[in-house]
């Protein structure tokens, strides 16, 4: 390297060709290094502050032994097959279609099929064609609709009256077919002892891994937080209790588990006692309830609802429960659902409800703040896209040894963590902001492809290189994975990011 006037040149040792360096190239590396070194806070790149992922999760040994003991004593026939079917059912299950949506869909289908038949049969529509339209509407609704009808005949009467008012006689006749209701019925899962045992084999390890992954975000990013009390709504087998105890141990002095199924509460209590009826449980001070206490006067440091909101049949039920849980939250509210479109949208309903809904009587004046996974409080950019894809994350875990497959499995989850904030967020003065990695990191020679959800509410595709972003950020990107946080620098962001396709 040598200077010639105000320019700096670099000479290749092989071909002896001189290259002129631009000012930006000369100063970029050192400036970026200082900025990013501050972000690392002395930590190695593979453990930078944005890393929140866990390695492959194993059940706590005491929980695993207890589950094996309970299942062996029960001796359920074809347990692996039943567990596999239940897992597939719970994963593919969708939200129940609201009655208003069912009405609108039925009217649109009826009008659409009538217009198609009128174009073909100009001489009018006879009864045979009406019967054909009924079958087509029934078939389409059966194929695309999940509908809950707890009051079967009342629902039929309501729909009939609606269709009569709108002159949709074809659909009115269609509702006389009682098969429609049974075909479209969305059922609330009732967990008795037998189904609870199958659920234990199918979902104990995966549910524990998902909750632990979400709670680890709090443990890693807020190490000062030490919860004293826990409320677990829809506690099931008590995975929320076990995951919280794994992270915070004996600092938790009170666990309140709420589940409407008494049989599931009994199974959860057996697991706490090692699968036997011993008097000394592994985790003490655990209380089981079948109904959610509504009073907002008693709050809990940590409130969890894992795979529970999807068990509620209607939107109104979900929103009321969500708001009740938020009023009982002192520090963090953690919601976990399946990593499907419906699971993600249920969480976005909860997010919007808590951020926008005002309580008539405010018992806690602290405002809600989105802690994770979103790095902003704007509408989810994934829901705005033409082709909606869920915002989900992955966690590997080892299943119960009782099942045939002992290889590690993958749990796809969507989660939402909301905290209570005493005051407005201060304006950031740093040149960088935190962005969430929302897909697999693709590591390539000399660059890393990252898809990010940024603080401005936009999705960005970023190719991180050592030359453009500095060695620190490049090595952090290579050490990061799906679900971690990554620092993005404003100046570099404008010059190097690629538009999301």
From TrEMBL:
Cellular component terms per the entry's GO annotation: mitochondrial small ribosomal subunit
Pfam families found in the cross-reference section: Rsm22
Compartments where located: Mitochondrion matrix
Keywords: 4Fe-4S, Iron, Iron-sulfur, Metal-binding, Mitochondrion, S-adenosyl-L-methionine, Transit peptide
GO terms (BP aspect): ribosomal small subunit biogenesis; translation
Regions annotated as coiled coil: none
Keyword Glycosyltransferase listed: no
Keyword NAD in annotation: no
Chief subcellular location: mitochondrion
Superkingdom classification of source: Eukaryota
Gene3D superfamilies: Vaccinia Virus protein VP39
One annotated GO molecular function: structural constituent of ribosome
Cited PANTHER family: 37S RIBOSOMAL PROTEIN S22 (PTHR13184), METHYLTRANSFERASE-LIKE PROTEIN 17, MITOCHONDRIAL (PTHR13184:SF5)
Function summary: Mitochondrial ribosome (mitoribosome) assembly factor. Binds at the interface of the head and body domains of the mitochondrial small ribosomal subunit (mt-SSU), occluding the mRNA channel and preventing compaction of the head domain towards the body. Probable inactive methyltransferase: retains the characteristic folding and ability to bind S-adenosyl-L-methionine, but it probably lost its methyltransferase activity.
Family listed: Belongs to the methyltransferase superfamily. Rsm22 family.
Assembly: Associates with the mitochondrial ribosome (mitoribosome).
UniProt protein name: Ribosome assembly protein METTL17, mitochondrial
Species assigned in the record: Cyprinus carpio (Common carp)
Name of the encoding gene: LOC109063535
């Amino acid at each position: 390297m040598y200077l010639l006037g105000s320019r700096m040149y670099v000479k290749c040792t092989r071909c002896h060709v001189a290259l002129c360096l631009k000012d930006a190239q000369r100063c970029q590396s050192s400036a970026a290094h200082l900025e990013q070194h501050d972000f690392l806070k002395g930590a190695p790149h593979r453990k930078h502050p944005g890393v929140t992922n866990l390695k492959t999760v194993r059940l706590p040994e005491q929980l695993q032994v207890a589950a094996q003991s309970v299942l062996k004593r029960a001796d359920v026939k074809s347990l692996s097959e039943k567990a596999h079917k239940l897992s597939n059912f719970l994963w593919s299950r969708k939200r129940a279609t609201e009655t208003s949506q069912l009405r609108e869909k039925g009217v649109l289908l009826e009008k659409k099929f009538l217009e198609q038949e009128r174009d073909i049969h100009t001489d009018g529509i006879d009864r045979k064609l009406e019967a054909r339209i009924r079958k087509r509407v029934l078939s389409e609704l059966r194929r695309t609709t999940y509908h809950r009808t707890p009051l079967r005949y009342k629902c039929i009467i309501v729909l009939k009256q609606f269709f009569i008012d709108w002159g949709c006689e074809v659909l009115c006749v269609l509702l006389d077919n009682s098969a429609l209701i049974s075909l479209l019925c969305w059922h609330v899962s009732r967990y008795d002892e037998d189904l609870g045992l199958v659920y234990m084999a199918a979902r104990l390890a995966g549910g524990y891994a998902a909750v632990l992954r979400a709670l680890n975000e709090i443990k890693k990013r807020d190490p000062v937080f030490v919860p004293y009390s826990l409320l677990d709504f829809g506690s099931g087998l008590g995975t929320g209790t076990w995951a919280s105890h794994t992270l915070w141990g004996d600092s938790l002095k009170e666990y309140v588990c709420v589940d409407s199924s008494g049989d599931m509460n009994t199974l959860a209590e057996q697991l706490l006692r090692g699968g036997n009826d011993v008097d000394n449980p592994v985790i003490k001070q655990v209380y089981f309830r079948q109904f959610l206490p509504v009073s907002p006067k008693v709050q809990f440091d940590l409130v969890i609802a894992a795979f529970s909101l999807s068990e509620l049949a209607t939107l109104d039920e979900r929103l009321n429960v969500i708001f009740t849980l938020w009023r009982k939250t002192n520090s963090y509210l953690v919601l976990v659902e399946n990593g499907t479109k419906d699971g993600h949208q249920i969480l976005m309903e909860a997010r919007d409800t808590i951020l926008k809904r005002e309580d008539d009587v405010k018992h806690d004046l602290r405002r809600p703040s989105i802690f994770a996974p979103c790095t902003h409080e704007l509408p989810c950019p994934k829901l705005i896209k033409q082709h909606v894809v869920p915002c989900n994350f992955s966690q590997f875990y080892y299943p119960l040894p009782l099942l045939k497959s002992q290889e590690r499995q993958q749990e796809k989850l969507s989660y939402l963590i909301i905290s209570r904030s005493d005051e407005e967020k201060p304006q950031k003065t740093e040149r960088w902001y935190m962005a969430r990695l929302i897909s697999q990191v693709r590591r390539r020679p000399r660059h890393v492809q990252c898809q990010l959800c940024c603080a401005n509410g936009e999705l960005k595709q970023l190719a991180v290189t050592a030359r453009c972003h500095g060695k620190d950020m490049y090595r952090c990107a290579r050490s990061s994975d799906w679900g971690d946080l990554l620092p993005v620098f404003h100046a570099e962001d404008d010059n190097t990011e690629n538009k999301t396709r």
